[in-house]
Amino acid sequence: MGRKLLLEHINVPGINTFDVYRQKGGYRSVEKALKTMTPEEIVEEVKKSGLRGRGGAGFPTGMKWSFLAKPEGVARYLVCNADESEPGTFKDRYLMTYIPHALIEGMIVSSFALGAKVSYIYVRGEMMPQIRILEKAIAEAKNAGFLGKNILGTGYDLELYVQPGGGAYICGEETALLESLEGKRGNPRIKPPFPAIAGLYGCPTVVNNVESIAAVVPIINDGGEEYAKIGIGRSTGTKLISAGGNLKKPGVYEIDLGLPVEEFLYSDEYCGGIANGKRLKAVVAGGSSVPILPANLFMKTVNGDARLMSYESLADGGFVSGTMMGSGGFIAYDEDQCIVRNTWNFTRFYHHESCGQCSPCREGTGWMEKVLHRLEHGHGKMSDMDLLVDVSKKIEGNTICPLGDAAAWPVASAIRHFRDEFEWHVTHGAEAQTRNYGLAHYADPLPKKEETVA
Amino acid sequence: MLRVDEQQQTPVNFSPELVAKFDEIVSRYPEGKQKSALLPILHLVQAEYGWLSVPAMDKVADYLKIQDIEVYEVATFYTMYFMRPQGKYVLEVCRTGPCGIVGAEKIMDHIEQKLGVKEGEVTPDGLFSWRGVECLAACGYGPVLQIGPEYTFYENLTNESVDKLIADLKAKGNN
Hints:
The complex is a heterodimer of chains A (about 450) and B (about 180). By secondary structure, chain A is of the alpha/beta class. Chain A has 18 helices and 13 strands. In chain A, the strands form 4 sheets. Chain A has a 5-stranded mixed beta sheet. In chain A, strands 3-2-1-4 form a 4-stranded parallel beta sheet, sandwiched between helices. In chain A, helix 2 packs parallel to helix 6, helix 2 packs across helix 9 and helix 16 runs parallel beside helix 18. With about 180 residues, chain B is of the alpha+beta class.
């Protein structure tokens, strides 16, 4: 078991208050950064840490920061993306609820590194309780001299505000988030220009996930190199995993990247196995948008290696036999779950959340939802599976923002790996209304690959 | 839900306290960028009146010095804003993925039966309405529901806990 970096003090009573958080060593990174480091040195530490964006795309945070344009006399902004809405993901809610000062502390250090004088935390509107928690935390930090004018006597000024969203998944896409923050509909912008050049109000802007910003705190406290020692390969540091679905112990866990998935799933320290003594059928490893995998492919790669919770290992096999780390929204399905129904449920979600700007996504998501609805309700045709794959291929890559891809991948992967279950829904339409296909062969060990003679 | 309700034209007047809150929100943004305050202000207006009527939205447009349509297009885009009157308590049940596999649909059926109204309709006493909503980012605690305007969360729902919640709200709402 590794050292917890973000959740180390999560069980300390009163850790959500400034005083207790400070007692436990909170806000040290602000003192260190503002008093002893230059903004460039902070960016350099974050680069060295190898920290990758925790929102889903996994883009290196330090590199994102170094792209920020710095024209003279133009304001720069840091915007925290707390519009957590990816089905399966609830780590940011957890962090903001129980240890809000970790985010505030990270925001101060990051804003200083980027030269922002005003920063916003864009929180999804449904999280009104978390908005109240953050506003209280900001007031406490301001009271203690860590926010406002002339922070700790260093001459650095920073105002931090919380902005509520209005209930739209699409606003988790960074340019849609910026549109929403400007008081508009959440329609993603065409890139380029990227936010680093023209973001909020046309000014250079960095948008980072809650967890990425909170991770800056241990990086500054202990140094980027220390942080990079945790993890495996290019997956450095710790990651919050939101574990949900049919698990004995669902919840938010901080893991060292590189933890074997088997340990994560079955050990008592983490999920504790599948609930009610059932067997695992399938896993969505990184939020609803990433490809779903049957149990056997999830536990082991096609080469027979044990899969690890890391960006690379989860992606091993590409989209043919692998998946993605995404935002760490881990959903486990037991043997009683119906993959067709689940795929229909996800597609309804994407149809509902499509902003309607690009026709492939606007029309395609609705089309897929209708076809999946009829498959699930026993009116499907054998040709529907190819139709779904065809529609998904025509959405993927043909939209302004990645919501189109996110809608296409779960459908394409479900058909790739669970085609016989879809076909059973066609051939046994009436039976499928009263019972599920069950585990079938989805947890069976993979056939050994034949050895090729060189 | 997506259409602006033009039937109800009761004029609204924002109280000085409410306008003071608007002023504080506008002060968070740079000069001339007051439109950024639109979403937070609409939340405050909805908390006050229970939904967003056309006169209320027009008033917000006047306050922010933007066109009426700029308010309508935003209010209809985001799912949290109600375009017609709701019950005093709106039960919003998450129905997506992880909540779906732990029984959200059964909870929704139970609520429908218990309240005796269909999704989106208001009970005759005006106290309740309910609807299914998409992922509320609480997937480990499903099934979940939330109730505005405070957006209090109720987790790990069972039929019994829903019955108790409805009974408690009834007692509270009738006082």
